[in-house]
Structure formats: C-alpha cells, structure tokens
C-alpha cells in the first residue's frame, strides 16, 4: 500500500482526458467483430464491384459467323454489315451448305445469284443478321438497277457511303451528356456516405446509452466533466469512421485505377474521394452531436431507436434524392437546392462532386454553413447531454432538457 | 485534512432531498452513513463526487472545496453499480486508473495488485459481463481502489457480497483508514456498521439526526442491565430498586432473563445484590443497545412525515 500522502498520479489535463476517452472508443470498437466484418465487406464490395464492371465492359462483342458462296458475296456482306453496324465473320463455303450449317457457330449461308439474295439458315434467322441481310438485298437490287441503267455500281456505292448530313447544334452546352461512369460514381458515393453516417451516428447514440444504462457514467463523471466524455466519444468514433470511409474510398480509387474503369471518363476520382472525406467529417460532426444528445435522454438500449428515429428520417431524405435523382440529373433544381441545406449537404454535395457537377464556390458556401451549424449543435448538444446524462429512469422530455439549460 | 460536508441542500422540484446536511469525516476514520431508503444518503454521496450539483452547501477536503482535480483522489462506488459490460476486467481497471491521472505502468501495477488482493486475478482477461454478480462487485471495489484514492466514498459497498467478500472488504476498508484515508460508506447492515465504523451518522428525511461514535449515540438513554436469576419471584426488580422497570423478559424452564432499565443515578450493583438474594444468578452484565435499536429509535421519533425520494 502506498502512502496516501504521496500520490503516484499527475493532474490530468483536459486534452489527455479527452484523448484517453477517444482512444478507448477506437480500440474497443476497432476490435469488435461487427466493425471488422463491415469494413471487410465494404472493401470486398468495392473491389469486387470494380472487377465485375471491368469484366463486363471489356468484353468484345462476338462476331456472327456467316458463310458465303463466293468472294464477291463476301465483299457485299461486309459492306452491308458495316452499314448496319453488325459484327460478322465471313468465310467462304465448302460447297455443301448443309455441312456448313451443321457447325452451330455458323448463323447463315448467304449466296448471291444475279439479283437474288439467298439466305439459308438451320432453323431461323439470327436476329442480329436481319437488318444486315435486308440492306444486302436492297444493295444487290440497287446495284442491278444501276448496272441496268449503264452506271457503275461501285462508284455510286462510294458516293452513297461518303454522304453525311451537316449537323449544327444551336446549344451544344445544354445537352451535356452524362457518362455512365459519372452516374455510377455518384451512386456509390451516395451509398457510401449514407452508410458511413448511419453507422457512426448509431455508434455514438448506442455508446452514450451504453454508458448510461450500465451506470458506468457515474464512475466516469466523478473524474471527468460531461463534455469531456461526449467530446472524446464523438472524436474517437469519428476517427474510426473516417478511417473506414478513407479505406473504402481509397479502395474505390485503387480499384478504378487497377481495372482501368475510368479511361475515357470525365470523372476526377481524386477530387471525388477528397470531398467524400471532407463531407463525411462535416456530416458526422452534425449528426454525432445531435444523436449523442438525444441518446442521453433515455436510459435503456431499447429506447435508443425511438429517440433517434426522427434524425434518421432526416438523413434518409437527402439519400433518397441523392441516389434516385442526382446520378441521372445532377443539375435538377431539387438536387441543387437541397444540397445547400446544412443537414442534407453532407450526402448531396459529395454526390455532386463525384459527378463533377458542382462549382467550387458552391462547395465553399455549403461547407461554411455546415461549420456554423456544427458549432451551434456542439454547444447545444453538450448542454443537453450534461443535464440528461446523470438522470436515469424514464425518458426525459426534450422540452425539459431544454428548460434545464443554464449558463453554468 | 478532513472531508467536510457542510450544509448540503438539494431539492428535486418540490421535494427537499437534502436539508442542510453537515458532517465531517476525519483522516483514518471509517464513517458509517445510515438512514432509511430515500433519506438522502445517495444524494449526499453523488453531490460529494460532483455527479450532482447541490443547491447550496459545500464539500471541502483539506480545507479547500472538493473540485474536479481533487475529486480524482476520491475512490467511489456508486449505489447503482457501473462498469462497461463488454470491456475486459484488467483493461477496464487500467483505463479507470489512467482516467484518474495514473501513468500507464502505475495503473497496470495497481490493477494487478488489487485484482490479486480481491481474488479475481484469474478473471483479468474476461469481460465484466461474464463474471458472477459477486465477482462483478469485487471488480467494482477494485475500480474504487485502483487509483490509490485518498478519500473513499462507497455507497452500499457490502450489498450483494458473500461472507468471504464481506470480510475482505472490511479488512481493506480498515487498512485504507489506517493508512490515513477518510472512509465513508453507507449500509443497511447495521451490525456491520457498528462493528466496522469509528463514527456513525444517521440521516432522516434529508437531515442529519445523529452523528457520533456508537457509544456517544447510546448516551442519553438510561443504563440497562441483564440479569438471569431463575429463582427470582415476580416483582423483585421493582422492590429492589424503586423506579426500575423491566424492558425485556425471557423465561425458559431453567432460566429467567430480564433486561432492567434503571432510573438516573442508580447503580447496577444494587440489582445484582437483589438478584443474589433471590437465589442463583447465572448471568449479569450491562446491555449495550445495538445500533439497530438506536437507529429505530432515532428514526421513529419523527417518522410522521417519513417520505421516499
């Protein structure tokens, strides 16, 4: 037993107290199975998704095999295929049509007899060839007619192929084409930040109630102030969430680069991931303080859901707009308008950034508004939490928590 | 050097939970805090620990208000036991010790020492929720002791403990007090309080109704003597000492025990001599009023407005 007059401890600074509280959150949660599994699943989903997309888009269309009776027919078939955009592989017949078509890869045998185009198939014509053979028949008929009139079919064909209309757009900017890669990235960004905010927000709420329901808060408050406790908790869970979002965002960027998903795409991955991280931090700060304060009003884990559900609804609104409208119409006035609302910005702004449809000044305005809101929320949440956290028992009405706020 | 509770007042709405509660716990002293449920014990302790704010009054230690940095020297066992259920015993105790300002290595050493002392050393790596309630209680006591506090405030530390743990806990409290730590604990086990405490404070309806050593609390009542005189005839007590009265009588085939309350100024020897005159005397001695009875007496004198909070 040591002499009580000679304590073996140092005065604990505010910074160290908060750091220790935050560190406990990080360590105990990072070790939990739930966190490890969700992180691995998100990483696998992102990498697996990238791989799947690359396989799907890299696949060359299969040419349709066509057998012809003679070299002249081969040329005519290739011309017709080019005009109709059909991909064909042409070989010359062995002479026995039935023998040619026994090979199931061969879709049709084409022969030109004067003005007649004879197409022989095993059972029915491959749908992909319909347009090609129709154009071929017209071409042959046209060539015959030109020859009959004394013209040179080859010369006319060249003239026809070379003819192109002049297209003059009056508003070239207005018809901004959305690249599918933009839509996909916008969609993934929306889902990712929604999951991130939802998970971390719930962790904060449940963590607050865990301390309250297990009464350990009484032991903690004998040595630290309530605001140390809530700040440490919010920082710790936030750091962990940020790590998760950065990992998943980085994995997304890596998989895009690895599988060459963004070649020829207008998307700027670096800025998309960067803004994702910024908005996660801002969004997390807002929702964590609100949810932490609300959770402190109840004493039992079962009551967490009901007390935080209104906030979860607020979080779902920008998510619904963000994944159902923004990826296809990022300039819709609904998307743009809502993206300025501070509680909605953290989901809608990163989607707009991912799609490259937002100006820097817009981002700065939204960030500024969010920071102001965060400062207000932190002060309010700290006050509510401090009053409510030591009051166990039935749920404390929010009105009462507000009325108890005092300047101390 | 003492812990001074000075004029604490606290109301919950219209209910006055504490009404000028004052007492002092000196270094090296075990102070037993007793009172009915809802009398204000827990509220007093929570205010002492700063978990709750008082409306008026002050808690001082070494002459200065017990503020946040001084409270880090307090070991606290809340009435509602509280630990992180899913955190491991060892990690949790180290965390709590460090939160009180201990260095990592000192915290680890203290955790090892106290878990060994309280017989839960082999459970260090288990989650608290996996322990039996009795062992969770031991962890809770470790949590109150692990940062080597210089004041101990324990709310019902003995409730839920098995007899072995009660002995360990009693020994530990005595040791800490002997090391100069003021110890205050509340309990409904009054025999335990009587055995363990140097001084006792009785609170009723938010007011301290008695503070002092058990002996001091006894004074004021008339002296009582117990006599076993099997052959004594009825009425011998009143005949021997006018004004004396029998407060308790127990007759069996071979004994007749009476507790006699003597009027002020009379000596027990008079009763003894009168008893011997009646025949054999098997037992004679002063009756020490148990704390339980003192408590009932003190609390019941003004129970009319008894309340629950």
TrEMBL record, chain A:
Keywords: Membrane, Transmembrane, Transmembrane helix
Domain ABC-2 type transporter transmembrane: 33-381
Transmembrane regions listed in the UniProt entry: 34-53, 184-205, 234-261, 273-295, 307-328, 363-385
InterPro entries: ABC2_TM
Entry GO terms, CC: membrane
GO terms assigned for molecular function: ABC-type transporter activity
Membrane association type: Multi-pass membrane protein
Localization of this protein: Membrane
Protein name: ABC-2 type transport system permease protein
Source taxonomy: Bacteria, Bacillati, Actinomycetota, Actinomycetes, Micrococcales
UniProtKB/TrEMBL annotation, chain B:
Origin superkingdom: Bacteria
Domain ABC transporter residue range list: 3-230
Regions crossing the membrane: none
InterPro entries, sorted: AAA+_ATPase, ABC_transporter-like_ATP-bd, ABC_transporter-like_CS, P-loop_NTPase
GO-annotated molecular function: ATP binding; ATP hydrolysis activity
Entry-linked PROSITE patterns: ABC_TRANSPORTER_1 (PS00211), ABC_TRANSPORTER_2 (PS50893)
Assigned keywords, A-Z: ATP-binding, Nucleotide-binding, Transport
Record keyword Transferase present: no
Residue stretches in coiled coil: none
Sequence similarity: Belongs to the ABC transporter superfamily.
Protein's name according to its UniProt entry: ABC-2 type transport system ATP-binding protein
Organism: Flavimobilis marinus
Organism placement in taxonomy: Bacteria, Bacillati, Actinomycetota, Actinomycetes, Micrococcales
